[in-house]
Amino acid sequence: MLPGSSSVWKKFQQIRVDMVSVDFVICTNCHHVLTYKKSDGTKGMHAHRCSSDQPNTPLQTRMTSFTVQRTLPPTAYDNLKTQMVKYVACDLRPFSSVSGSGFQALCQTLVDYGAKYGPSDVSCELPQCTTLSRSVPDMVVKTKADLCSKLSSCNHTALTSDGWTDNFRKIAYVTVTAQYFDFQHSSQRT
Ligand SMILES: [Zn+2]
User: Fold this and answer.
1) Residues with Cβ < 8 Å from 72, sequence gap 6 or more?
2) Residue 142 belongs to what domain range?
């Protein structure tokens, strides 16, 4: 059954990642995420009972970061799209940079600041690149301390690593990813 052809779609929204529908839907009321395949129909969604309607239901990990909950008017959305394409073209960045978690966190901070402090001229507010690079050593110390604290408080950690070489500058890189569950039993990746 196609999304939209059953009454249950008034309550659920198809989740999209990079504008491609994936096998998950989200309840627009309680933000609970369910698996959904077209071939399986909407039975699972009909059976869903909102956790917000049930007292003392433990909070579950939400996947709202993957949802498209657009509140912008179409013209504003189109303008945003144009500005993002201009950013990619003018600054010679890959299109994928706009999907990066760092870019999205930066955008969210700017949106939040706009709401909290009102409109302002970004050319006056954004720190200079030298200011940023000088702040890195302090951030490294802080991030390391934060990471040590998190990892020392978990019982089990799964480590994976990846290595590659920059063929142009002949620099070798290794990344290590740690996956663990925190006190709230939500999966963490760092
Ligand atoms: Zn619900």
Assistant:
1) 80
2) 129-189
